[in-house]
Amino acid sequence: MKKLKHLFLKSFNAVLMAILALLGFANCDRMGLDMYGTPTPEYGVPSVDFIVKGKVINEIDGKAVEGIRISRRFIGTVAMYGTPTLEFNEKSPVYTDKDGNFLTKLSSPFNFSLEFQDVDGVKNGAFKDTTIFVQFDEGKHILNLDVELKPKVKETDE
Amino acid sequence: MNKKPTLRKRIGLELFRRLHKNNVKLHTLNTLFWECTLRCNLSCKHCGSDCHVSAEQPDMPAKDFFRVIDEITPHVNPNKTFIIFTGGEALVRRDLEACGLELYRRGFPWGVVSNGMALTRKRLDSLLAAGMHAITISLDGFEEAHNWMRSSSNSYKNALNAIKMLVPEQEIEWDIVTCVNRKNIAQLTEFRDFLISIGVKSWRIFTIFPVGRAAEYPEFQLSDEDFTTVLNFIRDTRKEGKIHLSYGCEGFLGNYEMEVRDHFYTCRAGVNVGSVLADGAISACPSIRANFNQGNIYEDNFWEVWQNRFQSFRDRNWMKKDECADCNMFRYCEGNGMHLRDENGKLLVCHYKRIV
Ligand code: SF4
Ligand code: SF4
User: Fold this and answer.
1) Phi and psi at residue B303, in whole multiples of 5°?
2) Whether the Cβ atoms of residue B332 and residue B252 lie closer than 8 Å to each other
3) Average pLDDT, chain A
4) Which CATH code for domain A50-149?
5) ipTM, 2 decimals?
6) Checking CA distances to B177, which of A64, A107, B46, B149 falls within 20 to 30 Å?
7) What spatial distance separates the first Cα and last Cα of chain B, rounded to whole Å?
8) Would you kindly state where each structural domain of chain A is located, as residue ranges?
9) Residues A23-69: tens digit of each pLDDT
């Protein structure tokens, strides 16, 4: 029951935030929408995310690959939701730019994997999906991750 | 600028009010201060943390604080629960890194509020290696103003060194806080340009208020005109976009809402912010008067206190008295921040009424 109430309140807040954003009261990025209403208290410190950034290239010719979708997948215990283990795809994937670069933010250095998917068909080449489990060095908040994708062998070529 | 909120702002304020009410119901703990020491290497004139407990108080053993972490862990999402070491001066604790690394391993992001005095290169490196996420350094203006405020002749030099070390750091979030008072207000523009020139990206301003030691220096309080000048300065600086400047979280600001901060005013104390004070007291922001303490970690389970007490923080109707009683902004302001209520619950300052 309590979980449902929480879910309702959170959804309600998401709607309110969307309307506020429409009215031009969007927060700047550094606070993130889920932090709406949670400003840095006086004497507090700004909060941060864990950042994974890097370049996606074609394994064969080393050329940058544009338009690859990078989704964050969390695997682990989220005590807040009251379930022992949970796996879910986090919202808002990012895409590689024309130089193959990407940057994505995680809320934790643990229990995340990144899925690299070619979602634009043959445009920019066709590549196989790759999943990488993210591992930060202890104490670190930024991870440089360069990824090589295997081209898909077209059926007609076989 | 007329201080009364425009129609568009009113609509925003109404929506935000609803959002805040939902947040009160959710009361998700997402910021936990640990007043890890009351020792300090300075004696600042505006210090707000000295008023309720004696500095003789020994530092809390880390294991006692980690018992609190154990108590909250099953109920929160550690990754979204920010632990902030504050003091006194947090960096005088030698086991800060050990505590920080343990938090990092348990998935809690952590940060430090510091005056920068003890932040040498070696110390910064060891804090970074222990997974520090964020740091806030206080800098109260140029050398004379800062040293006067801090009652120390080398505090400016050390704080500035600390800031310069932080500028190239990619891995952490950091910002500067400045307490604006009558001594430094005239140099605000120059000081801003200086901060931009040394590479500071994020800056927070709060205005001196008559609490703690600052109450002993009435001559440094800002006039209402000064206060309004500060708000205009922040608004203009934000428009320029060369540095991300915000006013601190306190005070409902009428039509200045969303002009000087990234969000509408709200006091999160006891709603999302909790604290463990040096003597074990359970409270919210560390500068809140001791009579609002909700329990003590040596007698109570922190999580039970967080869940079942804090009524006076979550229902602010009791603040609708004295000058707030018939204020038509109470809907949005709810009687100003908890830290601006004295021992008897009386309001110390109304930001809105100070705007001229
Ligand atoms: S009088 Fe009270 S409720 Fe009204 S704006 Fe001032 S502090 Fe807020
Ligand atoms: S008590 Fe004061 S410092 Fe804490 S959240 Fe409220 S207004 Fe901000």
Assistant:
1) -65, -40
2) yes
3) 79
4) 2.60.40.10
5) 0.78
6) A107
7) 9
8) 50-149
9) 888 763 333 333 333 346 665 666 667 889 999 999 999 999 999 99
